């Protein structure tokens, strides 16, 4: 382990002389000298590498040529495994992955399988982000940005695709929604809160313009989600059942187009921004990537495959887990899944807020929300279209209303451009309210209504009557 | 609001002197005259300069006593858009001969477009002669005269839903499509930096729009939660009361605009003293037709528009069946887009000339006018006619308006624009249009519904 660390140290010490960008200086100063071994341990406790989060914020930052890294970082297989697997303490959780599979094969106890696979996915998600970021430093800024934009939330997307294959459309909708909510309220709130506690004297500032653009995109996605839902619940579709699906698919294409335009727009303006920033920071953005390009690609595929495997077990176990743990599937999808899946990003965002780098935290939190809202959700609709599954943008009125209110609250909080611990606390408390609502929310469209509410099994017509009542009351308003 | 006066001064510079006739032609290419749009942004300040230069009426009479032929030339032939004018009589012919509703509808729509533009022009010319107060009132009323006339005819036929939907569609298309196109084109022409506009006006307009949404929301929610005290009647009474309040608010808004412009005129006068000189000289020839001519043309245009609107409204039902398109789609999307074509083009033109404030005035000002004046006015007219028009636009439409106003208010509050914001607004409009394409309006009274498959 010492050898690897000194390798690490050697690789990074070069950059000290070249005075890399501000962010890296900080972390490298910590790693740098051999006297500060203790600090190195502290650094490793970050559950995410500094680079990958920075990259999430500036997906299009240019890196200088990969010449240096070719010389220094052609790692042997052992070194590669050491760097990728053993360098982060979070990877202790990796053993839970195989454990989940074993438990599934032996006992088939859904609750345990669900929990273990969830725990097993966490480190894989983090390493996936790391590999993506390493790969992105080899490719140009464009492809790098695209990579980040796609793989940034790869975990959620992979889980969603497996759920779609099983026809669990509601789970997909709710898990994506929950991911947006947890990023916007919980992660952001914790970041603001911790940052505000650490830096008590003044308010932290962040870039208003970026926050504004993201809020605008979130509002647009809410618009895209609202119309199918309202169309459906007011029973005013032209061709019942079909119009709404067609509208959802059309809106998804529009939203994907908007997201592509957003990436293009960011590329343009960050090129300008980069020129401006290079006055304060040097142009040497290249912090020697730790693994070579082919290693990055190989690791990327390995991790993706692993995540896919675990996701399959996860998705299969959801319903059983909900029965076993006596929690509604809606709550699991909306609250539990995203919190656990996002744990690494969450911790990273808090860490950066405490270092007074609120822009990066914001990029992680809000950028992730925007990505899921404008790319993840429409992408899933399109994938479902290809698969032949009828996934639409109608998230049902309760969920859509939740998203709408949340986006308005967050957009409002962000518009000032400053943060303090109180704002953070408010956001966290809002999340508590949202979570509590979903805990007592019965999803009439989900399969688990009967399984969760065993008394309803007795009255087979119960759910049917419930739906009829709602239809009638809405129908009455028409006359 | 000194930006408006700057803007006004600038526009006078452009239209102004005889030497700049080429500029004048350039301006003719935009489907609106520059002053007319400046007029729209500052509906009440139109004659600040007029009151200053007292020599105007005398000079005006000498220079612009046109013969009837000249008048016709100025009004009818000076604008390329007027090529569409023959479509008006053509629509009437088609109606008498074939009664093919689809064609009648389409042709009368095309025929109304140039008339609407000329009506705006005549209004602006007339506003030169009246004082600032009456001028502002004229603009406030006739600014969206086309929509109002169409609505009144529809009300007379009892097509209340069409009225609601067309007014709603006008607001939506102004806020999303026109504004989005203006931002987008302006951003493309000026890619380097972001264009700025006056935040204060945008915020005031957003506030008024939100208030309008509030006025529309309560009757709708009251109806849908079945919590009216006297079912059916309370909601109508509430709508009528809210309409009066909204009209009052709009009147107060006009007074507020007038007062604050009077206050702000002095500082800008010092800054643009040279411009002011030019502006004063230019004012002498700015009105192109005399006062009585404007009034006559105003009356003629209004009459023509009324006639065509009559045919338009009668043909709507048939057109919807002929084309296989829901009436709500025609009312909300097609009617406003084509009816607003002239304003649309001029807003884009001004954005590309980096005069984003005028574009904003055209787009958002028009939306505010319709929502705070047009809709309540129609309710009151309906009241007088004995028609039961209310502010309950049904849940789907009200929700659409609500989310649109919030999105637009959010986009405007920054005070800057770029092509991406414009693109987002246009894409939002696409989503709205698509929703209305698959939206069946179940509450349309007496109108046939599309068969469900």
TrEMBL record, chain A:
UniProt keywords, alphabetically: Antiport, Calcium, Calcium transport, Ion transport, Membrane, Transmembrane, Transmembrane helix, Transport, Vacuole
Bilayer topology: Multi-pass membrane protein
Gene Ontology molecular function, alphabetical: calcium:proton antiporter activity
Segments traversing the membrane: 81-102, 108-125, 176-199, 211-231, 246-265, 296-315, 327-352, 364-387, 393-414, 421-442
Family classification: Belongs to the Ca(2+):cation antiporter (CaCA) (TC 2.A.19) family. Cation/proton exchanger (CAX) subfamily.
General function of this protein: Vacuolar cation/proton exchanger (CAX). Translocates Ca(2+) and other metal ions into vacuoles using the proton gradient formed by H(+)-ATPase and H(+)-pyrophosphatase.
Protein name per the record: Vacuolar cation/proton exchanger
Naturally occurring in which organism (per UniProt): Durio zibethinus (Durian)
Record lineage: Eukaryota, Viridiplantae, Streptophyta, Embryophyta, Tracheophyta
TrEMBL record, chain B:
Main location: membrane
Alphabetical GO biological process terms: intracellular calcium ion homeostasis
Transmembrane segments: 98-116, 136-155, 167-190, 202-225, 237-256, 320-338, 358-383, 395-413, 419-439
Compartmental location: Vacuole membrane
Domain Sodium/calcium exchanger membrane region: 103-258, 294-436
GO molecular function terms listed in the Swiss-Prot or TrEMBL record: calcium:proton antiporter activity
Protein's UniProt keywords contain NAD: no
GO CC terms in record: plant-type vacuole membrane
Topological type in the membrane: Multi-pass membrane protein
Keywords annotated in UniProt: Antiport, Calcium, Calcium transport, Ion transport, Membrane, Transmembrane, Transmembrane helix, Transport, Vacuole
NCBIfam families assigned to the protein according to its UniProt record, in alphabetical order: caca2 (TIGR00846), cax (TIGR00378)
Record-linked PANTHER family: VACUOLAR CALCIUM ION TRANSPORTER, VACUOLAR CATION_PROTON EXCHANGER 2
Described function: Vacuolar cation/proton exchanger (CAX). Translocates Ca(2+) and other metal ions into vacuoles using the proton gradient formed by H(+)-ATPase and H(+)-pyrophosphatase.
Family, per entry: Belongs to the Ca(2+):cation antiporter (CaCA) (TC 2.A.19) family. Cation/proton exchanger (CAX) subfamily.
Name of the protein: Vacuolar cation/proton exchanger
Source organism (scientific name): Durio zibethinus
